[in-house]
Write the structure tokens for this entry.
Amino acid sequence: MFGQKFEPLHSTEAFIAALNEEEGIGATISELSENISLQRILVIDGHSIDRTVEVAKDHGAEIVFQDGKGKGDALAKAVENMGRNVEYVVVTDADFTYPASYVREMIDILEELPEVGMVCGNRFSKRAEENAFQGRFLFGNKILAFTHSILNGVDLQDPLTGLRVIRADILRNWVIKSKDLT
């Protein structure tokens, strides 16, 4: 049955925080929809002044507008609007930089390891382009990864990744502290 979607094994929603992402939002939504059956795609718009909202609606996403600024505020708004029966939430950037083809594998990890609450994408894996990261960005991310490892005891190679799959139960109880940061 090539080309046909399978029924979703789990109730999964996608959260996409967006601010002036007219160029990438459509492709991001399309690729997610092609790779995994989602209960819904929720775009949290930070009051874009381009066509981000129109493009997202044209691709079947639901739109909510965040109250403040920044990704933390957008995620808080998304959690407020999350469905009751959702098991997993995909959080991804709106600029079409993270391949949705890995999301199914990320959910499988959560299924196999119930003690794991979140699976993060890793731009520094062997699969990533060699010249994708350079200079200060690479150095800064490595420092954050090292610090995260020491403080939290978790070896996270890419703490600034824009692709995550999280158990919804964790988000339901999460108090986001980084609201209103840009």
User: Anything to note?
Assistant: The CA atoms of residues 70 and 181 lie 5 Å apart. The chain is about 35% helix and 15% strand. The radius of gyration is 16 Å.
